[in-house]
Design goal:
Blueprint: E1 11-16, H1 26-34, E2 37-40, H2 42-47, E3 57-60, H3 68-77, E4 82-87, H4 95-102, E5 108-111, H5 116-124, E6 132-135, H6 155-163, E7 166-170, H7 177-186, E8 193-199, E9 207-212, H8 214-217, E10 226-232, H9 262-271, E11 279-283, H10 289-297, E12 302-307, H11 310-323, E13 328-332, E14 347-350, H12 357-367, E15 373-378, H13 381-394, E16 397-403, E17 406-411, E18 414-419, E19 423-429
Parallel strand pairs: 1-4, 1-5, 2-3, 2-4, 6-7, 11-12, 11-14, 12-13, 14-15
Antiparallel strand pairs: 7-10, 8-9, 8-10, 15-19, 16-19, 17-18
Length: 434
C-alpha cells in the first residue's frame, strides 16, 4: 500500500504502454486509480477508462500542451491528486521535461516505463546503448528537399543520420517512415543503411517489418504508432575535417579555377573561429572549398553559400554532392540578393564580391552575431584598399595578413620552389555596441 498522500501531492507523470495495466507497477496503477484529475492523450485515457475514478476530471492532451502546467497548478491548489499519462519513459522525448521546465521540480514525480524505442531494440535484439535516439513526432515537417536548413522539421534527424551508425526514431502520423526513407534516398544514403519498423508495440496488432530496402520503404505505408530503426551496413572511415588538398575539389578548367588554395583556406578557416554549431556565410563561393570545409567543421551548424557564376555554381554543387553534407545550402545569385532570409552568422567568408564590396562589408558587419568574424581574401590592391576604407568607415576592428605560399616542383632530377600568387586576408569584427 502507498503511504498516506500529502495535503498537496506531487503531480505524478506516469509512463504507460499500449498493453494497459499489464506493464504497470502496483504503485503506478494505484496512483492512476486514485487520481482526481487525469491528463493524457485521448487514446490513452480510453485505454485506462475502466481503472479511473468515475468522478475523476479527464483532460485530453491533444492541442493543449501549453495549458497543462496551469491545469496542474490549479489541481494542486485545490488539493486534488493529479496524474499525467505519458507514453513509455516520460523523460525520453516525452512531456516530463517540458513540465519540469514549467513547474517547480518539487511539484512533480516521474514514474517511468520502458521507452518504446527500448522495446523496438528488444524486438530486434539490438543493444540500445549504441543507439542514437531521435524523434520527429511533431507537427507535419513536409517532404525533404536538398539544401534544407534548420527551419525544416527533419533537419536535425538528417544530421544525426549522417553522423551516427545506429538510430531509433520516434515517428509521427505525418513524419512517417516512408517520408524518412525518401529523405535518405534523396541524400544518396539508401545503400548505406538497413531499416526496420516496429508497428503498434504492445498492441494486439503489433508487427515488426524488417528485411526491406530503404528504396522499397519509400512507397510503403506503416501502421501508427511506430518506431523506425536504422543501422549502417558497413564500416565508414572518419572524414578529414580540415586541410583538404586542392585536388579534392572539382574546379573549372581550362578557364580560371576559382578555389581558395589549401594554405590560404586553412588560415582563413582558423581566423573565422568556427565552433561545432556555427552559422557561416560563404559569399562568392567559387568551387565551394571554404564553405564545404567549414560545413565539415560545423557539424551542428549550417553553411549558407552564394555564387553568381552559373558554371562555378554547378561545380560547387558537384563538390557538395561529392562530400555528402546535409548542413550546406548554396544559391546561384549575385550577393546580397537571396540572402535576406539567412539567419545571423557567427562567421562570414567573402571570396568574391561582384563589384559590391563596400555595400557587402556594411551588410555583413550589421548582420554578424556578437564576437563574430568577417574574413575576406583579396588578390588585388584595389579590393584591399576598398575593404580597409569600408572597415574604417564602419568603425570596425580589423587586421591584415599577407600570405604567399611556395610549393615544391620537380625540375630534372631535383626540386625547385614555385611561388603561388600572394593573398591578403582581411579579418574584421563589428564595433561593439556600448
Amino acid at each position: 500500500m502507498l503511504d498516506s498522500l500529502p495535503t498537496q501531492p506531487r503531480c505524478r507523470i506516469i509512463g504507460v504502454l499500449d498493453d494497459g495495466v499489464a506493464s504497470l507497477s502496483a504503485t503506478a496503477l494505484l496512483h492512476i486509480q486514485q487520481a482526481q484529475v487525469i491528463i493524457g492523450a485521448r487514446r490513452t485515457l480510453d485505454l485506462f477508462r475502466a481503472h479511473l475514478s468515475p468522478i475523476a476530471i479527464k483532460r485530453p492532451l491533444r492541442g493543449a500542451l501549453t495549458q497543462v502546467p496551469e491545469w496542474i497548478r490549479a489541481a494542486q491548489s485545490d488539493d486534488l491528486r493529479v496524474v499525467v499519462l505519458a507514453t513509455g519513459d516520460p523523460l525520453c522525448f516525452g512531456i516530463a521535461a517540458y513540465l519540469a521546465a514549467h513547474l517547480c521540480i518539487e511539484a512533480i514525480e516521474v514514474i517511468p516505463n520502458v521507452s518504446t524505442m527500448q522495446l523496438a531494440c528488444a524486438r530486434l535484439g539490438m543493444p540500445w546503448q549504441q543507439m542514437k535516439f531521435s524523434s520527429v513526432h511533431a507537427k507535419d515537417a513536409g517532404e525533404w528537399s536538398l539544401g534544407s536548413d534548420a527551419s525544416h522539421g527533419l533537419y536535425h534527424l538528417m544530421q544525426e543520420i549522417r553522423h551516427h551508425a545506429r538510430l531509433a526514431i520516434l515517428t509521427g502520423p505525418d513524419n512517417t517512415p516512408d517520408r524518412i526513407a525518401r529523405m535518405i534516398v534523396m541524400e544518396g544514403l539508401q545503400d548505406d543503411y538497413e531499416m526496420a519498423v516496429c508497428e503498434r508495440l504492445c498492441q494486439e496488432e503489433e508487427h515488426i517489418v524488417t528485411g526491406i530496402s530503404i528504396a522499397a520503404a519509400t512507397t510503403m505505408r506503416f501502421a501508427d504508432p511506430n518506431v523506425m530503426l536504422l543501422w549502417r551496413t558497413g564500416m565508414s572511415s572518419a572524414p578529414v575535417l580540415f586541410g583538404l588538398a586542392d585536388d579534392r575539389f572539382q574546379q573549372r578548367y581550362p578557364g580560371k579555377g576559382l578555389i581558395t588554395k589549401q594554405e590560404v583556406r586553412a588560415v582563413s578557416l582558423a581566423r573565422m573561429q568556427l565552433r561545432a554549431d556555427s552559422i557561416v556565410w560563404d559569399i562568392g563561393a567559387g568551387s565551394g572549398s571554404v564553405g564545404l570545409e567549414a560545413a565539415r567543421l560545423c557539424q551542428r551548424g549550417h553553411v549558407y553559400a552564394i555564387e553568381k557564376n552559373p558554371d562555378d555554381h554547378q561545380i560547387a554543387l558537384a563538390n557538395w554532392r561529392q562530400f555528402g553534407l546535409s548542413n550546406y545550402s548554396i544559391v546561384n545569385d549575385k550577393a546580397p540578393a537571396g540572402m535576406s532570409h539567412w539567419p545571423a552568422p557567427d562567421a562570414i567568408f567573402i571570396g568574391g564580391s561582384g563589384g559590391e564590396l563596400k555595400e557587402l562589408i556594411a551588410l555583413c558587419l550589421q548582420r554578424l552575431r556578437p564576437h563574430g568574424w568577417l574574413v575576406m581574401n583579396f588578390v588585388t590592391l584595389e579590393n584591399l584598399s576598398t575593404a580597409i576604407a569600408a572597415l574604417k568607415d564602419a568603425g570596425a576592428s580589423w587586421d591584415v595578413i599577407s600570405l604567399q605560399a611556395s610549393r615544391s616542383k620537380p625540375i630534372l632530377h631535383m626540386n625547385r620552389m614555385a611561388a603561388e600568387n600572394p593573398v591578403w586576408l582581411v579579418c574584421a569584427q563589428a564595433k561593439a555596441s556600448v
